[in-house]
Amino acid sequence: MGGIPFLYLTSTIMAAITPAASLTTRQISATGPYAPKTTTSTLLPSHTIYQPSDLSAVPDSLPVVIWGNDACNSTSAKDPYKALNEELASWGAMVFACGPPTPVLALLESDAGKEAWENVDADKIAENPLVLSLAVLDVKHALSTEETRAVVANATKPVFWFSAESAGLVTLDQGKMGVRADFDAVAKGVPAWYGALPGVDGEVLGEGAAGKMGRAGRFWTQWMVGGNQTASEFFVDAAGAESEGWTVVRKGLDVLVL
């Protein structure tokens, strides 16, 4: 897959928000309690938005996930991220995909509480930048660049890596060139988690509901913005991700657990 996709987990967005144009709702194999659909907004013409079909059925508010990769094609049946996005939406998240993150962040910051976005809760948007957590998906040795390292080195919010590699954590142990250097570059005091699944990333994401990757992404979303401490167990307990086949390295997560 080209490019390293970044996921930015922002503040909550109130459930009554309705983007301007709706695409056809598809029946999919997501596991959550809400039927997901894809929509578009005239305010974000480059993006596809994944969300629960009936926003009024979602109590309280929606966590917002923003892709930082504009290279994907949401209209292609071969797009491996669609299943992951739909899985997150089925658990009550709103996902902005296939467009750059900056316009979404700017819109949430400037238009919260106004017109089409009147039900965005501005009080729940984190200080600028709006990001509450950063995830790096499908990390590969060849894609671990100095630019990526600079991003994680400057991160002040929790950083999570989700990877599928046939060699397990081999990429984590490539010293200066691999993910180990990225992981070690996270500043002292900033929580970080790295998990690797055996297998090829495309195959893992191609499983029903994005497989174990979708399950991990759901827990990340629920914990980092929803404050769901039960979801945190997947990342902090040996009976969590490790018991499901992940190889894990973590640091500093204890400060996030209440």
The strand order across the widest sheet is 2-3-4-6-5-1-7-8-9-10
Low-confidence blocks of residues: 1-6, 10-28, 124-128
Please summarize the sheet with the most strands. 10 strands, mixed
Number of helices: 7
- The N- and C-terminal alpha carbons lie at a distance of 37 Å
By helix and strand content, what is the structural category?
Answer: alpha/beta
- Gyration radius, rounded: 17 Å
Mean pLDDT over the full residue set: 73
Q: What pattern of helices and strands is seen along the backbone?
A: EEEEEHEHEHEHEHHHE
Number of strands: 10
Gross geometry: globular
Fraction of residues in β-strands: 15-25%
Helical content class: 10-25%
InterPro entries: AB_hydrolase_fold
Keywords: Signal
How would you describe this structure to a colleague?
With 258 residues, the chain is α/β, with parallel strands linked by helices. It is 24% helix and 23% strand. It has seven helices and ten strands. It has helices spanning 82-90, 101-111, 146-153, 179-185, 201-205, 211-224, 229-236; strands spanning 6-14, 21-22, 36-41, 44-52, 61-67, 94-97, 133-137, 159-164, 192-197, 247-251. The radius of gyration is 17 Å and the shape is globular. The termini are far apart. The model is unreliable at 1-6, 10-28 and 124-128 (pLDDT under 50).
